[in-house]
Amino acid sequence: MRRILVTAALPYSNGSIHLGHLLEQIQTDIWVRFQKLYGNECYYFCADDAHGTATMLSAEEAGVSKEEWISRLREEHIKDLQAFGVDHENYYSTHSPENEKLTQEIYLKLLENGAIFTDEVSQLYDSSKELFLADRYVRGKCPRCGAEDQPGDNCDMCGATYAATDLIEPRSVHSDSKPVLKSSTHYFFDLAQFTSFLREWTTSGTVREDVSNKLKEWLESGLKPWDISRDAPYFGFQIPETSNKYFYVWLDAPIGYMASFRNWCDRSGVEFDDFWKPGNDTEVHHFIGKDIVNFHALFWPAVLKCSGFRTPTRIHVHGYITVDGEKMSKSKGTFIKAETYSEFLDPETLRYYYAARLTPTINDIDFSFADFLARVNSDLVGKLVNIPSRCANFLARGFDSQLSTELSEPSLFEEFAASKASIEQLYELGDTAQVVRAVMSLADKANQYIASNPPWELAKQEGKEQELQNTCTLAINLFRTLCVYLKPIVPMLVERSEQFLNSEPLTWNDVDEPLLDHRLGKFKRLMNRIDQKQIDKLIEASKETSAIEPESDEDQITIEDFQKIDLRVAEILDARFVDGADSLLELKLKVGTGERIVFAGIRTAYDPEKLKGRHVVVVANLKPRKMRFGTSEGMVLAAGPGGSDIFLVSPDDGALSGMEVR
Question: In whole angstroms, what is the distance from residue 32 CA to residue 662 CA?
Answer without folding.
Answer: 62
